[in-house]
Specification:
The chain has about 290 residues and is mainly beta. It folds into 2 domains: about 25-70 and about 240-294, Sandwich (Immunoglobulin-like), CATH 2.60.40.10; about 80-230. It has 2 helices and 20 strands. The chain has helices spanning about 1-20, 110-115, and strands spanning about 30-35, 40, 45-50, 55-60, 80-90, 95-100, 120, 135, 140, 150-155, 170-180, 185-190, 195-200, 210, 215, 225-230, 245, 255-260, 265-275, 280-294. A hairpin with a 4-residue loop joins strand 14 and strand 15. It is elongated.
């Protein structure tokens, strides 16, 4: 009996000693090779992989997949605004104004009065009675001072001969984008994410802000002055680039990876291989500069 107890105790001590051992996380033994750095559009680029890693992420170097930009959140490009408009009963010219500011401090009548507004109506094409009239591209480079760009639609109601009722404006498809020199475009806001605030500066009538239905619309009322204001936006904001996961924990060992480029150019290709646990991560990087001709 005592012998059996001693065996059990020894076994427990052995298990305890194993549990106390620290499993050391190792740096991945992973490498990549290719036969040439020059390819043509549509060619299959075969990357030959050796060794292994828990995870491998691939960055092709194309727009949106550039390793150099994985932490980039700002880039100076050309901020652009587009929308569509529709006016019913176009009673007066200039009943709708497009305005912008960088110093709106409060979203109320006092804030509107104290802000410095720039009238940018002449940058847009507005409806004269046709539905869904495209505004064209409205460039906003002069508002890239800080992160407080605010766009406003200002409506002024009017009734006068020969128009017995005031105009009604409907705005759809608002999009604000940051377009970079490499043609990549980052959407900063859409009509549903502008977080509109309606302010009436002379009575209780106001914009109808149906953001779920993707339009905003004025209320028909003479002598009414109605403002539809966006939330503040940073016009040079971009989304960080990402990679493509091509190997995960427990997946088959990666021996080859094939890729094809659809556009000519020079691309920095990066393979990021790493081992990780809940406390740390160890990684190695393999990179190439590939030339793709037409």
């Amino acid at each position: 009996m005592m012998k059996r107890i001693r065996i059990i105790i020894c076994f427990a001590i052995l298990l305890g000693s194993i549990g106390c051992k620290k499993f050391t996380l190792t740096t991945p033994d992973f490498d990549v090779a290719i036969t040439t750095l020059n390819y043509k559009v549509g060619d299959t680029v075969t990357f030959n992989c050796s060794g292994n890693a828990d995870y491998v992420t691939f960055y092709s170097g194309e727009l949106g997949y550039n390793y150099d930009f994985i932490h980039r959140t700002e880039a100076n490009g050309e901020p652009q605004l587009k929308f569509m408009s529709f006016v019913q009963n176009p009673a007066t010219v200039d009943s709708l104004k497009l305005k912008a500011t960088n110093n709106l401090n409060s979203w109320d009548a006092e804030g509107i009065a104290n802000a410095s507004w720039t009238d940018i109506t002449n940058r847009a094409i507005l409806s004269t009675g046709k539905d869904s009239t495209p505004s064209g591209i409205i460039r906003l480079n002069d508002f890239m001072l800080n992160d407080s760009f605010v766009l406003a639609f200002r409506y002024s109601g009017f009734v006068g001969s020969p128009y017995p009722i005031a105009s009604r404006w409907t705005i759809r498809g608002v999009t604000i984008s940051n377009v970079l020199a490499d043609s990549s475009s980052y959407t900063l806001a859409t009509i549903g994410t502008c977080y509109w605030t309606g302010i009436s500066t002379c009575d209780t009538s106001n914009w109808y802000l149906n953001q779920q239905a993707n339009y905003i619309q004025t209320t028909r009322k003479a002598t009414s002055v109605q403002w539809a204001l966006t939330a503040p936006f940073k016009l040079n904001k971009v989304t960080p680039d990402v990679g493509v996961s091509i190997k995960t924990m427990g997946g088959a060992t990666l021996t080859t990876y094939n890729y094809s480029y659809s556009r000519a150019g020079t691309y920095k290709v990066v393979f990021l291989a790493f081992n990780a646990n809940s406390k740390e991560e160890k990684q190695v990087m393999r990179q190439f500069v590939i030339n793709v001709s037409p």
